[in-house]
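Reply to dn_fold:

You asked what the input looked like. This is it:
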Amino acid sequence: MIPDISKHNPDPEYLKGLIGKIGVSQRESARRIGISERVMRQYLSNRDASTALEAPYPVQFCLEVWADEQE
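and this is what came back:
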């Protein structure tokens, strides 16, 4: 898998789906990719777009690669 920023999709539901494919908790996924559990919760929050914290592409890419390995 090659990184491609044009595929950036910070949608919380998309990221939750990747974590579901991986089969670990949000806490464990945060720990393994090197971010705090709190930040991961903010990325996965469905809050108002004006206050939500958007996941950067490297976080998404890490989850995509990891999910791809599970298939």
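DSSP finds four helices and no strands in the chain.
Hope that clears it up.
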